[in-house]
Design a protein that fits this description.
Elements: H1 7-25, H2 32-38, H3 42-65, H4 70-77, H5 81-108, H6 110-124, H7 126-130, H8 138-155, H9 166-176, H10 187-193, H11 197-206, H12 209-224, H13 226-236, H14 238-251, H15 272-305
């Protein structure tokens, strides 16, 4: 898509593309994987992650066996670093800027923030539903309903159940990183449901090295293990995986209901007009992303059909 452009311009474009992914990862409801699909980076990022992970495995094994780093270097060279590096830089910058802006908003206006996130996630539900690859049958709706019920009960638990313990931070990061490989799944939303969204934003904004180090380690482990599990499930059980994912996302909307008390119980509605407006805005934003993604997919389909 960028063939023929000067190298410096391609780098700048990839910086902004990475920024789009990073900004979306900071918003519950907008999946980084979905954004990567829309802007045409999904395949390159997933392939690059695979080369990096396999290279790291080869390096570790060969280091123990004292066989040199030949296999690891060969694997790493296959990654398209001219794309990966500027994209990662853009993601990092966008995440930091988003954290500085979003953290105060979430803390000062929690009801309006939850309403906007509710709209974001509600509009995201068609993504896994439509991309399941097969028509849904009665049993699939039943499975999704069971998954949704389990998620509804889990997200109804008070956030204080999961403290800001290093182990919790580590595993939350490992699971949240799946959003980079699974369109429709929001890593920020996962953090929100376990009560780590605001603490993570504050850690990024305040450069909390201890917190961020644990979080980064969790992401690395997640990228090397959980992500590969999800890739296996999507490859061999794609339809069933997306069915379960759709149910989990639907049930998790409970955590984003704007009218609830600190114990996650439903409360009397207040400021209905502005709250509903925030939800509508969130819904419209994600709907726009979905429409853009559909157009991008159609263009790719036409290119492949034309023999490109």
């Amino acid at each position: 898509m960028l063939d023929g452009l000067p190298g410096w311009l391609v780098t700048v474009i990839n910086l902004f593309r990475g920024g789009a992914i990073g900004a979306s990862e900071a918003l519950p409801g907008i999946s980084g994987g979905t954004t990567a699909l829309i802007i045409g980076l999904y395949d390159d990022l997933i392939a690059g992650a695979g080369h990096v992970i396999r290279g790291a495995k080869h390096f570790t094994v060969d280091l123990v066996r004292r066989q040199g780093a030949g296999r690891a270097v060969a694997e790493w060279r296959q990654a398209r670093w001219s794309i990966i590096v500027p994209v990662l830089v853009g993601m990092g910058v966008a995440l930091i800027l988003s954290a500085k802006v979003l953290a105060p908003l979430v803390e000062r206006h929690p009801q309006y923030a939850l309403a906007a996130f509710f709209g974001l996630v509600l509009a995201s539900l068609p993504i896994p539903y439509r991309h399941s690859g097969q028509p849904w049958k009665v049993r699939h709706y039943v499975i999704a309903l069971v998954a949704g019920a389990a998620s509804f009960l889990f997200t109804g638990l008070p956030q204080a159940v999961l403290p800001q313990h290093p182990v919790v931070i580590f595993f939350a990061a490992a699971i949240a990183v799946c959003a980079l490989v699974l369109p429709g799944l929001s890593g920020a939303f996962i953090l929100l449901t376990v009560g780590l969204y605001e603490p993570t934003l504050r850690a990024v904004a305040e450069a909390n090295i201890g917190y961020l180090t644990i979080f980064a380690l969790g992401m690395v482990v997640g990228m090397a293990s959980v992500v590969q599990v999800m890739q296996f499930l999507l490859k061999h059980h794609h339809h069933l995986t997306t069915v379960v994912l759709t149910g989990l996302m639907a049930g998790s909307l409970r955590a984003l209901w704007p009218w609830q008390d600190e114990g996650r119980s439903f409360a009397q509605p207040s400021d209905v007009g502005p709250t509903v407006l925030c939800a509508v805005i969130g819904f419209v934003v994600v709907t726009g992303f979905i429409l853009l993604g559909s157009r991008a997919a159609k263009r790719q389909h036409k290119l492949h059909a034309g023999g490109v």
